[in-house]
Design goal:
Length: about 500
């Protein structure tokens, strides 16, 4: 990662990353010590877990929920939900509780900007080998994978997960987050969107007529999940980036059947093969946009060769419900940082802040703040944000604002659009942009024909450059005066 000019305000975000955990159990112990965990015993996977998610996961201030003794599952088999709200974001990323979400994004960017991959280390044994299920003992249905949404096509065990594949040409190990539905005791469906690295690997194996080995990590700590689902360049191994973030190599075991590596501290790992020609109906699934994602389609399945799990294993659940919810919250932190870097790399100067808003799943509604330097600066920033690597996939709106607007505050962004944007003059459009079959605005007939395109609106909500100095003054205190007010009087809100 190349050094870029740092245009962020110098703030408390100079604090270094200090992780307080090594695995999910360490993380969970810290959450419990903070009084930020609720345990639910005896719930069923048919309806109860999904209902709790609907009640808890839309709001920022709710605790994590750990389901134990789930009906129909072995005693001690658990599933965790709602893990990235409140200060648990700070815990996961290793920064002080006092940081707000914009501070976190700045700190995340600062910590990751110059990280060098640390190769994962293969070890002989680890906690996830406490239980090895092979042959007749394989039964993936005993884990507490829920029916997340009433209209889902089945139980999805793979939500807060990552899938490990190997490029058959280069040997590159990739980790990606793709959905995993349970078919029966010994098979799970594997859906991977076109263009994703795992899909590219799969297509290579299928073209050769060879089975693709996969390892599916369905029990992991939140940071590993976050890293695996962050856009990484081709050839980059996310296991090595997990090590870079932590400052030490991730200890990995080798699958007994596939030879693929996976973290030794994982809670649950499913190992198997995708065999050419094997497909079965998969979906629909309540996807990240907040809609039931597509109809049931024939997708490849994984024949399970082994399941590895710790004693009393914990699944990491990441429910997809109407936005905003935790998926959008964790992606907003990392994607905002990456997007800001992408825009700077394209040569756009004085980008002060960027936020990929939670209400748009961190993709469909982007806000970019700039310090205007020349005519067309805002238009340039908007178009680059819409079409750079981090912003190109399934975007919709980009709003460019002046540096006095808090891009992470949706109300301020909309206020700027309402007062500084003339719709007839200051909204531009990009057509034929990269979308997805998950886009609810693409007609079913176009999806069938592969016409997966949409348009982008670039909303210039900056003061008109040629007379910005004469624009009406905002009736708000300076940042310094505002901070003083909060320091003195915030107790009145308690």
């Amino acid at each position: 990662m190349t050094d870029l000019p740092d245009t962020s305000p110098v703030a408390a975000t100079n604090a270094g990353c200090a992780l307080q955990y090594d695995d999910l159990r360490d993380w969970l112990a810290a959450v419990e010590a903070n009084g930020d965990l609720q345990v639910v015993k005896g719930a069923n996977w048919h309806t109860d877990i999904g209902q709790v998610v609907e009640v808890m996961c839309h709001d920022e201030g709710t605790p994590s929920v750990l389901f134990d003794n789930v009906e129909g599952c072995p005693e001690g088999f658990r599933i965790l939900v709602n893990w990235f709200t409140g200060t648990r974001k700070n815990l996961t990323l290793g920064f002080p509780e006092s940081f707000n979400k914009l501070d976190l994004s700045r700190a995340y960017a600062g910590h990751t900007k110059n990280l060098k991959p640390i190769p994962h280390e293969i070890v002989e044994d680890g906690p996830v080998f406490q239980n090895v299920l092979e042959g007749d003992d394989i039964d993936v249905t005993k884990f507490p994978a829920p029916l997340w949404n009433p209209d889902d096509g089945g139980r999805y065990i793979g939500t807060g997960c990552f899938i490990i594949t190997r490029d058959p040409d280069t040997g590159w190990i990739n980790c990606g987050t793709y959905r995993i539905m349970i078919h029966d005791e010994k098979r799970v469906a594997l859906y991977i969107s076109p263009g994703k690295h795992g899909r590219i690997h799969r297509d290579k194996y299928m073209a050769r007529g060879e089975p693709m080995p996969v390892c599916i990590v369905v029990g992991t700590d939140p940071l590993s999940f976050l890293t695996s689902s962050t856009e990484a360049p081709e050839g980059m191994c996310e296991l090595d980036m997990m090590g870079a973030y932590r400052g030490h190599a991730v200890e990995c075991l080798t699958g007994k059947h596939t030879g693929l590596p996976f973290p030794a501290s994982s809670e649950v790992v499913i190992e198997g093969f995708v065999n050419p020609g094997n497909t079965a109906p998969e979906g629909p699934f309540g996807e990240w946009l907040g809609y039931q994602g597509g109809a049931m389609e024939a997708e490849p399945w994984v024949d399970i060769s082994a399941i590895y799990h710790r004693d009393d294993p914990i699944l990491l659940g990441a429910a997809h419900i109407r936005l905003p919810y935790e998926y959008a919250r964790y992606r907003a932190i990392s994607r905002s940082a990456i997007l800001k870097e992408n825009i700077a790399r394209a040569g756009v100067p004085d980008v002060t802040e960027v936020w990929a808003h939670e209400v748009g799943g961190s993709r469909l509604f982007l806000a970019v703040a700039i310090k205007q330097r020349y005519p067309g600066h805002s238009v340039q920033a908007g178009h680059i944000a819409a079409m750079c690597h981090a912003g190109a996939y399934l975007g919709r709106f980009v709003v460019v604002v002046d540096e006095d607007v808090d891009v992470s505050n949706l109300e301020e962004v909309i206020w700027a659009a309402c007062t500084r944007c003339d719709p007839a003059e200051n909204i531009a459009f990009i057509r034929g942009a990269w979308s997805s079959s998950l886009d609810p605005l693409i007609p079913p007939e176009d999806i069938k024909e592969g016409k997966l395109y949409n348009s982008r609106a670039i909303i210039d909500a900056c003061r008109p450059f040629h007379w910005k100095d004469d624009f009406q003054k905002v009736n708000a205190p300076s940042p310094e005066a505002r901070q003083e007010a909060w320091d003195r009087w915030a107790y009145l809100r308690e």
